[in-house]
Amino acid sequence: MSVVRNAIMGLSVGEAMGVSVRGKLREELLNNPVTNMIPSDVPEGSWSFGTTSSLCVMESIIKCGEISLNDIMHEFLESLEKGKYTALGEVFDIDITSKSSIKKYSETLNINSGSSDIKNSNGCLARMLPIALHAHSYKLRDNQIYDNVKSVCNLTHLDDVCVLGCYIYVKYLIFLLNGKDKYASYNMIKFLDYLEFFDEDIIEYYSRLLKGNIINVRPLDLKSDDYIVHTLETAFWMILNCSSFAESIVGAINLGGSSDVIGALVGSIAGCIYDSIPIKWLDSLIKKEYLESEATRFENAIK
């Protein structure tokens, strides 16, 4: 499987693994860790809005050949109202900020429908995978990458803390896609000139990730809630301290909390690093063939 398809399938696998334990307490999972896909309030192998939102962006890029904000928002609305690009025929587990912004768009058809999110939630992250893959394929400059990241993030999440989190994730993926190893890529994101696009007070939110060394943080000090900063810290810790796709995913989801988003992020990154997604996990995905087909269509569209 190519790295593009591996990253997309990795995102879906990681999210589906995390869906089954989302919201569970870490202590409960540490005593009884989950190592395979299991049913919960949804069937085993169900992926949620992270994969759905990525599929929306992918489909828009396939159709338009570029980043079209109006079309991406239209696809988000199609998923919410008609169940397109979903595992179960309807959207589930969508974050409040994204849902309210899409509903506002349905009433106004104005793409400037994003919401200010005082919680700086992580619901904008997973859709950035196709933005990174597109940017890498077209060799976009940093200012172009920033513009695309900010615009697609702001469709639902207006706060610069969320935009910076998305930008860090996208740049890390691009460094990996350029052939850098995971440690070199981490060092490279630490030395980017973020002041070109962000104020110092916004950058400071990510000081533990960008100014410290997240590898050395104690596992007990990692948080797995919906806060975008914590999500990125935890995802990077898992990637940098684990040595396989499976180990990274199992570690990520058994922290509980926002395990679906963390699993999706870790899965997409690990998919760029390792080519060994467990077959039993892939085979458990709902609509596996559909996901593989969409990944192939997208890869062909951005060549």
Q: What can you tell me about this protein's structure?
A:
The protein is built from 16 helices and no strands. The protein is mainly α and 303 residues long. It is globular, with a radius of gyration of 17 Å. 60% of the residues lie in helices and 0% in strands.
Short key terms for the protein model shown above:
single chain; 303 residues; ADP-ribosylglycohydrolase fold; 0% strand
* Biggest sheet character: none
Q: Provide a count of the helices.
A: 16
Distance between the termini: 16 Å
CATH superfamily: ADP-ribosylation/Crystallin J1
CATH level-two architecture: Orthogonal Bundle
Name the CATH class.
Answer: Mainly Alpha
Q: What percentage of the residues does DSSP assign to strands (E)?
A: under 5%
Would you tell me the overall average pLDDT? 96
Give the overall form.
globular
Order of helices and strands: HHHHHHHHHHHHHHHH
Percent helix range: 55-70%
Subunit organisation of the chains: single chain
Total number of strands: 0
Question: Mind sketching the topology for me?
Answer:
Elements: H1 3-19, H2 26-31, H3 49-64, H4 69-82, H5 96-108, H6 128-137, H7 142-154, H8 160-177, H9 182-190, H10 200-203, H11 207-210, H12 228-241, H13 245-253, H14 259-273, H15 279-284, H16 288-301
Helix pairs in contact: 1-14, 1-16, 3-4, 3-6, 3-16, 4-5, 6-7, 6-8, 7-8, 8-9, 12-13, 12-14, 13-14
In short:
Helices cover 60% and strands 0% of the residues.
